[in-house]
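Task 17 of the worksheet. Students: predict the tertiary structure of the chain below and write it out as structure tokens. Keep your answer in the requested format; marks are given for formatting as well as content.
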Amino acid sequence: MSTVRIAAESATELAWQVFVARGAPDRHARIVAEHLVTSDLMGVSSHGLNRVVQYTSEIADGLLRPAADPAVTTLAPTRLLIDGGSGFGQVACTAAVEVAAEAVATYGTAFVTVRNTQHTGRVGAYTEALARAGNLAMAFGTGAPRFHRVPPFGGLEGRMSTNPISWAAPTAAEPLVADFATTSVPEGKIRLWRDTGRAVPPEVLCDAGGRMSFDPEDLYSDPPGFLMPLGGERFGHKGSALALLAEMAATVLAGDAIDDAGGRGQNLALVVIRGDPDLAERVSDTVRYLRTSAPRDPQRPVLMPGEIEQNAAAGATSVELGEASWRRLVAVAVDCGVTIPHVSVT
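Model answer:
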């Protein structure tokens, strides 16, 4: 299957124009477009430009309100709640980063919950931004019942979403950034495999009857299959426990109910601790010590959280999409009256 390559600048402009055409204010559209393209450049294509089609579909269905502005409520000096108004998750979470940074600068800690927003995007973007300011940051994401594609360990029916967790810490160079779904892979990875005609690896997906599946279509069938928790069939109790931790932080503490059938969006909790002036250097010392471990494979060096993505972004100038994903994006762009930029096909 062919691969379509588009310059990063052109990809950002394309996404921005589509979102503006669908009713997003300029700033909202820019935040989301830059977030998606940056994800692609980092190699996190599950949260990249392919999401434009999903977002425009959600706008058409009335699930996503592109012009919604986040509303901030201060519950206590270090405890803030943001209602996303069913708008772009990236816009609400960017607001969460801003208010968390203000609170942590004054009080040393901050706990910010975002509720009632749509797809939050790459959660590591938010912890990374706070770590670059010298903080230790953690994030926990959850989704409403319509996103529940993950059963509890041993279960057959979805009761949680992929519930991503991220943490980031400053160093003297690039921050450490961990960002992972509490399932074996994020849902977006299944979407990409479906669009590129690839099989799903073992210990990732089950069909509706609970049988291990290698067909990505099984996740979207009726009745749907489900994603296995991080750790798979034998050790998935660990991933399931982490997913439940995310529910405690992002759903329960926000005052929401995990089974609220009326809930249409996603939640995110940010926990931020201000670092002292020496934190980055001490984290760097920790990293230096870890790197003294001899690698198991001399051709594959010891890596730190976030390093793969940072290395990918360092030399990236273009975004790659599968042919099927590109065709869908072009159809949306044409419908919005947006000019299609030049691309190369290999």
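Marker's comment: The chain is about 40% helix and 20% strand. The chain has two domains: 1-67+316-346, 77-184+228-309.
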